[in-house]
Every structure is written in C-alpha cells, then in structure tokens.
C-alpha cells in the first residue's frame, strides 16, 4: 500500500513495507516529516535524550566500586562511550536498512528518501550536535585536543544538516550510518579496561570483534565508493555542490585515514591493553579520542 506525502521535491511516496517505522508504530507514517517543526522536535528530542543518557551513565559509574574511583575525565569518557554505543546500535539498524533493503534511497540516489530515513537523518543531527559539543567541552576542561574527531564530527554535522535542508543525499547518509558499528564494542572495550578485566577471555573476544568491525568498515567504505561509481552521472549532475564536497571529504577521510588508523590502534591495544586515549592526550594529540 502506497500513499503520497508531500516532503519537498520530488514527493515522497511512502511504501509501508519499505519502512521500519511501521514496526514501531504505524501511525508514525502519517507524520508530516517535511515540516521543519517536526524535524526540529526530533532533533531537539534526540539531543535531550542523549544528554539525559550521558548524565545517567555518569550516575551508573558511581554504582559500581570498580568505576567509582575513576577520575572525572575517565567517567566522562566512559559516559560518552555509552552514548556512542547506543547511537551505534541505531546506526547498525539504519545502515543495514539502507544497504540491504531496496527502497526509494536506491531508486533515486540523490533525492530519494523514506519516512524512516528522514527520522534517521534528524536523529543523527541531534546526536552530532551533542557529540561535538561534548567533545569540545571535554577538551577545554581537560586540556586535550581531539583534532581528528572534531574535524570528522564537524563535517558530519554540517553535511547531515545541509542534507536535511536540501532534502538530498539521504541514501549515502543512511547507508553510511553502519560505520558506527564499532562503537558498541569500543564502549565495552573501555568498560572492561577500567574494570580491570583486560586479561579476561571476554576482553580478548570483544577486542577481536572490535578489530573486525574496522575491517568491515573498510568493506562498507569500498561499497560506498562503488555506489558512487555506479551512479556517478546522476551524482555529478544533480547533487548540490556543498553536499557533494562534504560527502566525498568525509568519505575520503574515513576511508584513507580514520578507519585504517583506528583499526591499527585497536590491533595494537589487543596486545597492549592500555588506555592510550589519555596517554596520547598528555602530548596534546588525542586523535583517538572517541574510539577508546
């Protein structure tokens, strides 16, 4: 069953079987996602949710003796890791939806959109608003400089915001969310490390899975380049220039710098289980901040 809903140009045709939202609540498909007010509510609601989750995680740290004695910056980092892990699970779901389910995102690689993808884009803007704010404030508070993370998240926030504004690039935006697949395992890595369980089998298993997520990230990144190749004429002709520049700046950054670097550091950490986040930050080079 399909119904036309006016969400920018071209119109969005909602096909119920192509929407994840129908499994949450079918009435969500009746919302006017073209409304800037609705988009704003989702963005602000997401920001408030992750903010509450962050402070809730801070309280969580105080419930266990293993974490109660941690210095404040380590508690902050653990709380940020938990927030990222929750968004990572969301990103895995949306990313799999974007990659493995054929929808309007595939039929129109530039302007194709679904109700689910619109919600996902708004949620991502809200998340990155919080994430960027938190990283900058923590850097100021603890005199670190997460240059790679700040650059990546700034580009991502601008790119997703402009994509929402121009109602374009939802396809790459949603497919690319699966790159957050490493964050749940990064979170567990940090929790186990601070709990003194770096010699346990659970640590070894989680670390091996975490390393493999970076291998899979490289596969996804190659897939996104291949999708670009397949649809290059449409992309180069119709994609708004600012979106085009930001898309391929981000894709180049994660493909050739961030994923290989973090994959290498995770492999190194498997054999030398230390918190190299703050070891590096003491040298004012916290390139790894955010990936434990």
Task: Describe the structure using short key phrases.
globular; 3% strand; 13 helices; disordered C terminus; 2 strands; 292 residues; mainly alpha
Question: How would you explain this protein's 3D organization?
Answer:
- The protein is 71% helix and 3% strand.
- Helix 2 (36-61) packs across helix 4, helix 6 crosses helix 8 (170-176) and helix 7 (147-166) runs antiparallel to helix 12.
- Strand 1 (2-5) and strand 2 form a beta hairpin.
- The longest helix has 31 residues, at 241-271.
- It is built from 13 helices and two strands.
- The chain is globular and about 55 Å long.
- The protein has a two-stranded antiparallel ribbon.
* Helix-strand topology string: EEHHHHHHHHHHHHH
Q: What helical percentage do the residues reach?
A: over 70%
Structural category is mainly alpha
* Topology, number of strands: 2
Taken from the alpha-carbon principal axes, the silhouette is: globular
Arithmetic mean of pLDDT: 89
């Amino acid at each position: 069953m399909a119904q036309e809903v006016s969400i920018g140009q071209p119109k969005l045709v909602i096909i119920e079987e192509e929407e994840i939202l129908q499994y949450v609540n079918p009435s969500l498909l009746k919302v006017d996602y073209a409304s800037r007010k609705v988009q704003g509510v989702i963005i602000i609601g997401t920001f408030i949710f992750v903010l509450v989750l962050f402070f809730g995680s801070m309280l969580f740290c105080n419930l266990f003796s293993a974490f109660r004695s941690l210095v404040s910056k380590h508690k902050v980092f653990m709380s940020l890791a938990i927030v990222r892990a929750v968004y990572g699970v969301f990103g895995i779901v949306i990313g799999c939806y974007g990659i493995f389910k054929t929808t309007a995102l595939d039929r129109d690689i530039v302007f194709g959109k679904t109700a689910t993808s619109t919600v996902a884009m708004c949620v991502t803007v809200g998340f990155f608003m919080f994430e960027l704010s938190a990283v900058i404030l923590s850097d100021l508070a603890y005199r670190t400089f997460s240059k790679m993370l700040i650059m990546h998240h700034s580009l991502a926030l601008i790119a997703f915001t402009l994509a929402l504004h121009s109602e374009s690039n939802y396809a790459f935006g949603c497919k690319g969310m699966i790159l957050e697949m490493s964050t749940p395992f990064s979170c567990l890595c940090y929790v186990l490390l601070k709990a003194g369980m770096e010699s346990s089998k659970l640590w070894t298993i989680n670390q091996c899975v975490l390393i493999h997520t970076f291998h899979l990230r490289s596969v996804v990144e190659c897939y996104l380049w291949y999708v670009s190749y397949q649809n290059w004429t449409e992309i180069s002709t119709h994609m708004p220039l600012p979106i085009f520049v930001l898309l391929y700046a981000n894709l180049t950054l994660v493909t050739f710098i961030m994923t290989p670097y973090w994959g290498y550091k995770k492999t190194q950490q498997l054999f030398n289980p230390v918190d190299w986040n703050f070891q590096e930050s003491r040298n004012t080079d916290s390139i790894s901040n955010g990936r434990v």
